[in-house]
Each structure stands twice: as C-alpha cells, then as structure tokens.
Amino acid sequence: MAVITCGSVVKLLNSHHNVWLHSHDVHYGSGSGQQSVTGVTLTGATVIGGHHFTLPLSGNQEVSAFGVEGEGDYLDDWTVLCNGPNWVRDGEVRFKHSSTDVLLSVTGEQYGRPISGQKEVHGMAQPSQNNYWKAMEGIFMKPSELLKLEIGKDSVRG
User: Where are the alpha helices (DSSP H) in 22-137?
Assistant: First the structure.
C-alpha cells in the first residue's frame, strides 16, 4: 500500500466535481485581495490559506494563494484528515483549515470574467461529498528518502 508522506508535492483533484485545485495571478477584487484559488478541468510555489472573508458566489469562506517559494503565515496551515492512520495514495482525504476549522471544498459555482468557467474553491464548515480530494500527480517521497534528506540538512547545519 503506497502512502503519501511529508515532503511529497502533489496535485489535488476534487473527487466529486472532478476539478484540479489551481491558483493563478488573478487576485480577488474584495476580501483579502490575494491570489484566487479555483477548480479547473485542465490538467510558482505558493501556499493556500484561509481567511475570514466571504466569497461572492457561495457565501463561504475565502481560500487564497499567498507567499513566495512556499513561505506564508499561520493562515496557510491545513490538517490532512485521512480515513485511517495514513494518507493512502489512491485514497480520498479532506483538508481542515487549522485556524478556522473549515474544510477545503468545491460546490460547483462558476466564475465569469476574467476566469470564466473556473469553479469557486472555498472553506465550508460542514463535511460533505464536496470536500473530498485525491492526490493524482506529484513527487512522492518514500519515508526512507525523506529521512536521508533530513539527515543531510542536519549535517549541513551542524
């Protein structure tokens, strides 16, 4: 059974709506004003964060992309909720925002211009079929490879 470990870099697909989690250089016109996060049907290192802003289409909590080269702040922390002790490679998971307790979700609302047809990604308070995600592509770290990287970092720091 293949598991997804810390250090893996993955592309996420919403299982119910069949859209990829996506960010691009189109910023919200209200709320945080940060880079929008959407769901796209197509197959930059930013991190996704949650805020206490309401989105215009669904009225749910805003999810945005922020940061440079993976560096953000405490609003970028999400917890992976697995159906067992590990994130299984073919399994579905949920992501719970650590500060606001909402679940990363897509419910089908679509934007108009300038990102026509892309679906709104947001935080929802209640679990549903709309907040299941799968890792479909990526760079998957094996536990032994991750340990070697950590040992190498400690040797450089020492």
Answer: none
Task: Write out pLDDT tens, residues 53-95.
Answer: 565 656 667 676 666 666 667 677 889 999 999 899 899 999 9
Which residue type, as a one-letter code, is found at position 66? F
pTM attached to this predicted model: 0.74
CATH class of 9-157: mainly beta
Which residues partner with 14 through β-bridges? 19, 133
Q: What tokens appear for 110 in the block? A: 């679509």
What does the H/E/C string look like for the chain? Answer: CCEECCCCEEEEEECCCCEEEEEEEEECCCCCCCEEEEEECCCCCCEEEEEEEECCCCCCEEEEEECECCECCHHHCEEEECCCCCEECCCCEEEEECCCCCEEEEEEEECCCCCCCCEEEEEECCCCHHHCEEEEEEECCCHHHHHHHHHHHHHHHC
Domain boundaries, the chain: 9-157
